[in-house]
Amino acid sequence: MMGQLHWFWLAMTAAVLVWYSVITVYVAIRGAFDIKEMLGNLGRLREEQEESGSSADYAEND
Amino acid sequence: MTNFGILDGSIVGVYILATMFAGLAVRKYIGRVDHFLLAGREMNIYLGVASLAATEFGIVTCMYTAQNGYDFGFGGATPGILNAIMMLLVGLTGFCVARLRNTGVTTIPELFDKQFGPKIRWLSGVVIVLGGLLNMGVFLRVGGEFLVTVCGFNERYLEIAMTVLLLAVASYTILGGMLSVLITDYLQFIVMSGGMLAVTVLILYKVGWTNITDAVATKHGAGGFNPFIHQKLGYSFVIYYALHQLAVVLTWQTTIQRLLAAKNTRTGLKIYTRTSFFFVCRFMIPGIWGMAALVVIGPELVAPDSLQAMPRMLSLIVPGGLMGILIAAMLAADMSTDSAYMLTWGSVIYNDILAPFRKKNISEKRGILWNRMIIGCIGLFLLVYGLWYPLKGNLWNYLAITGTIYLASMSVLLIACCYWKRANSWGAAGAIFAGAIIPSTYLVLEQVDATAPFAANIGPYWSGIATYIVAWMAMIGGSLLKPKTVTVLEEAEAS
After folding, report:
1. Which of B98, B140, B378, B392 is the 20 to 30 Å CA partner of B167?
2. Is B27 helix (H, G, I), strand (E, B) or coil?
């Protein structure tokens, strides 16, 4: 029984190291695109609000 | 003598400057309170995964999960496995959280307002903030102790180093809100993950897997590999953490804030499913570090001193260069946690606790100013309470008990709010009272010398399980006692 649990924890450790390595690289790449998209959307919203004359709230933060 | 050279200092310096620059650069996009608290609900899946993972892993997490590994062996990682299972199930089914996200609220208490009324909203806000801030109160000191021990710095620099770190984090959180938190979380996730993986590989290479399992078997016997038969764990430990982790996934405000900041409900649920396995890593990686300390330091240390086993081990085996990467990784972990926690408790204070005292038509500019001032006050609280609180006993138990103060009642309220139409304010008030009183009493009993043996006899796990049971009984009893009325949620559904 204890031997089986040794194997379970060894498999779990290997799974953790492999999954975490892969997800770090994947999230680093895809996350960068997410940031670009998010800032693009917020930037467009900002321009629209500035055009419609409600820019006071943004001006404070520039 | 320190273990921290010029190369290490340069790595840490570059990391901190890059984070500060990124965090401050996005403040210009903040124009509304919604942008400040939820990044305009524009967050997509992978940014959400990075942010959730970075937020839920700080130095304090690393310390208590390593302490679990040292004190309990592999069984100490059980809460992480349970957390991952609960998050995966909730992400796949949308249990509670899909309804929460669909309503478009900013915080959980705002949802309670619709079912239980404004008084319960306010009370829930107070319980969440109290539980959350007590929990967060130990972050700075524990983080500082880690850095001082690993780097071999003089202890008198602890307060100064952590004050500077907090000021840096507070500055970008105050100016950029959730947007800065997300951008810095992304960078911090990459640095933190790279550093943790590199150090884990080094530990496995230098200490060896067989030596680790032998040390666990020698100290804990078969219980070191199986929590059900461990002398200090057992069934109560597993049952308690199953309840606790479900409540965390459903109601922990930092986790929920990422769900609410997601572009839509589907994105929020995908963030849950794709981050779920990270919670196994969150316990396993520092757990392995803690178990490696059994080999390098020896098995003599007991709680609270066992908290220092892992940093002491790291100070002995991590070489120059990698030390800088490790410290940058741990600072990344801590900064992302601190910023997200300050923002999230601030959002509840602004949105729910101050709601009755705020003007209805407050301008966006003033709303953002209020949020910034609240975060500044939380930072001050952390400096005073966080650096001076003397911690006794097992750190993870302290965090779990203070967290239970709100997790038990808030999870009961959320489930009842989403799935039981008969649930009402009497039941909600009863659940909040019951959920707070048992863990608070246990914490006091544990601290007083005369009652400490009694508290130890009950143990934190049975006390925690009792909290969930009594909170549910109070919710059901209170709701059935109050005459039935139509709630805002029912009116909305009917129309």
Report:
1. B392
2. helix
Task: Using the structure block, give the residue that is written with the tokens 């040292």.
Answer: B70
Interface contact A20-B32, CB threshold 8 A: no
Record: contact A24-B197, CB cut-off 8 A:
yes
Indicate whether B62 belongs to any domain. yes
Query: A49, B213: Cβ pair inside 8 Å?
Result: no
- Alpha-carbon distance of B185 to A41, in angstroms, equals 19
Percentage of the residues of chain B whose pLDDT score is greater than 90: 30
Measured between beta carbons, which residues in chain A are less than 8 angstroms from residue B28? 46, 58, 61-62
Q: Domain of B187: which CATH number?
A: 1.20.1730.10
Mean pLDDT of B76-90: 94
In total, how many domains does chain B have?
1
Q: What range does the domain containing B372 cover?
A: 6-394
DSSP class of residue B26 equals G
Of A9, A21, A27, the CB nearest to B46: A27
Q: Quick check: is B257 in a domain?
A: yes
What residues are paired with B43 via a beta bridge? B262
pLDDT value of position A60: 47
The 3-state DSSP class for residue B455 equals helix
The answer to whether A42 contacts B40, with C-beta atoms less than 8 Å apart, is yes
The model's pLDDT over A11-44, given as tens digits with 9 standing for 90+, comes to: 999 999 999 999 999 999 999 999 998 888 888 8
B428-453 tens-digit pLDDT: 999 999 888 888 888 788 778 888 88
What confidence score (pLDDT) does residue B472 get? 93
pLDDT digits (tens, 9 = 90+) for B374-425: 989 988 888 887 776 665 555 656 666 777 878 899 999 999 999 988 888 8
Domain membership of residue B342 (yes or no) is yes
Q: How far apart are the first and last CA of chain A?
A: 64
- Chain B touched by A9 (CB under 8 Å): yes
Tokens of B148: 């001082």
| Cα B132-B133-B135 angle, rounded to 5 deg | 65
Q: What is the pLDDT of residue B414?
A: 94
Mutate to test the interface with B, among A25, A35, A48 (most CBs of B within 10 A): A35
Of the candidates B29, B200, B284, the beta carbon closest to that of A12 is on B284
B291 in contact with chain A, both atoms CB, cutoff 8 A = no
Domain boundaries, chain A: 2-49
Within 364-393 of B, beta carbons closer than 8 Å to A belong to 364-365, 368
Structural domain includes residue B351: yes
Q: Is the pTM for the entire model greater than 0.80? A: yes
